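for the record, two folds in this file. i put them one after another cuz i was lazy. first one right below, seq on top, structure tokens after. the second one comes after a little note so u can tell where it starts
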Amino acid sequence: MSVLSLIFSIIYILLIAGTILVVVSENRTPTKTVAWLLVLVFLPAIGLIFYFVFGQDSRKKRHSDASYQKFSREVLSCLVQNPSQVDFEIHQHKVRKEYTTLIDLLEKSDDSRTTYGNDVEVITIGKRKFDALVEDLENAKHHIHMEYFYFRKDETGKKIKEILMRKASEGVEVRFIHENIANIAVSPRFYNEMKKSGVEVVAFSKSTLPWIRRQINYRNHRKIVVIDGKIGYTGGMNIGNEYVNEWRDTHLRIMGQAAHVLQSSFLYYFFCSDGKQITDFKPYFPPYENYSDNLMQIVPESPASPWPYLLLSIIHIINITQKYIYIQTPYYLPSESLLKALQTAALRGVDVRIMLSHKSDFFFMDPAIHSYYEESLLAGIKIYERHDTFIHAKTLVADDYLSVIGSANMDFRSLELSFEINSYIYDEKIAAQNKDIFIREMELCAELTLAAWKKRPWYKKFAESVMRLFSPLL
């Protein structure tokens, strides 16, 4: 061995050993620590690259962000001066007593104040969402703000792109945030055409966010549209043909005060993504109407939040649920704390049901997902699988009162790493609607039984055990 090779080997070993010490010293959950140690020990070269790209935890690295504080003050001043601003305290008595603690928890997150009186349409058919969005975009007068994880270069994406370009050429302010890593196959020419027409396009992943390092591990998984500050869209549907014609997903069309929360979230991340600065925010927060008696919180989550509010809120909801909790999710990869909460609820008599697809859109996800089935079934959790389509919906309904609809999957990445946004709706009518959707779709599913599940082949059980080790990294 040459001297150069010896020096390289020593540096390499020290780098691996140092990284292992860093992983151990970060005091993460044992599951995550063990997963990363396995990768580093058995696949050292690849593991080292993966750790520096995907593994470092920035949640604890946030510091005081003066630019965010300045932005919040300016936006808040617009909201306070809004002549239709409704003080939540006037309607606080309408919240069920057991859910006041959930509201208090979520209001500690950034821009998650409780809103009142929104018009909320729950959309479960992709074509309906697409048609409504097209109509609203065509009717835009002042501005269109759009932020999507996936924006496909297909028929659906091209149609939305053409509308954005045409509206920009007509004088409407159009701003667009795209997730750069997720859309890496989309050529710069696609976005340059939008820019030439007057659309302000920024790439989220290229931003120098003031409180987080640039890493492809932290992706913008949100789906947000705000039109003239009056109409908002958010939920699980991206822009692409599969969301219109193939997959089963859930989205929201919102009018009212909650649209202003979507607006605030969009504007801040546009600002952080090197977008052109806005000097007067007032035109983006016009007066709104009260359409109903519902109460609603829209909660943006990021890996730089001091606490994982979406994860904590789901655990809290499970703990306070008395009768039932029905969940739809594309991926079932619960953390240990979340799994224990679900098991505890089922064991104390709560009707816990989880609906997902028989096969996910990524083949390697299936054994990891299936590794959680047996211990869930043992506790009395009911699992339903759809064979006819892929369920991309991220929904929860509990006790005929609370509905949660958003972008976050029930997995480690969504609840701890990605930029997500969920809507929490405190309303009996909307809860009844979501419950009815779940019950009707159960007829399209096959319910798993513990006895049948235990009979699966040994090699599947082994694959599940192996992939279970890597579930915190998927």
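(here's the note) second protein begins now
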Amino acid sequence: MGILSLRDAYQRSVTYLRVSVTERCNLRCFYCLPRGSHGCGRRPQSSLDELFEVVRVGVGLGISKLRITGGEPLVRPGVVDFVRQLSLLDGLADLALSTNGTLLAEYAGDLKAAGLRRVNVSLDSLRPTVFKEISGRDDLERVVRGIASARSVGLAPIKINVVVMRGINDTELPDILDFAASYGAQVRFIEYMPLGLGQRWERSYVSRAEILASLHDRLSGDPPSRRPGDTATYFALRHGGEVGVISPVSCRFCELCNRLRLTADARLRPCLTHEGEVDLVPALRPFVNRDALERGFRDAVARRVAQGSYAAPSDGSPGEFRPMAAIGG
């Protein structure tokens, strides 16, 4: 078992690591990879063996929860074997994967057999034309099949993540709740984040208050709840179950943050919205240096800030824009 030892200057314990295995994705959702972008992948990605060594050190330092992300993680060859390796780590309490669902029907059974416990699936619209407008692909039916497959093999609970955007999908929220209930899944509505998207964000942003107003007839009126380390606030539904709302803009939750992000090119990112990544490549090549990896984790934790910022760096420099697909969500 790992010994809890990653605590930042604000006394927040870091126990959760999001691991991006690739920057590549088979969709082009405009809030993640802006239209006109040439995509990610400018930096060479690390091998899965190298990423595993980083994770193993993190678990030894007290990381107990892992989420595999991308890009789209299921486009990375070898991801099932990577899951199998991770599932055997002593001290790991939770192993999950975030996916756009397009390849989930193909991989769900193998992932479950390899030791994956649960999945989060991005699904921003139930209308084929809107789904294609958002993602650039006509793959809604494939995503629905993926959700059905995940349920059938026991990858549970299934969480459906929905980025809410004004004039695009904000009228679909009740329908998405009903769809999720039919598959035994839970919905989490997410505020659109202003990560390098400028005017599109300004005209499309929908606040938590507006999301809840659109669901007023579905909510029970019971007090909302929070879970340790969870970014969502949960609201009970009138006919059973609950819905989560993740509100990084209107109701910041930085004081509860317990996570680091590992990018596909072996950099630890202390905060989703703040630069200051720690490059672990020198600790992995030409050979693995465990002590240096431990120092990298501690350095990343030391760089965590009290409150993330969507603004440019304080020195006025633009920094290197990393779209959500490159950060790993």
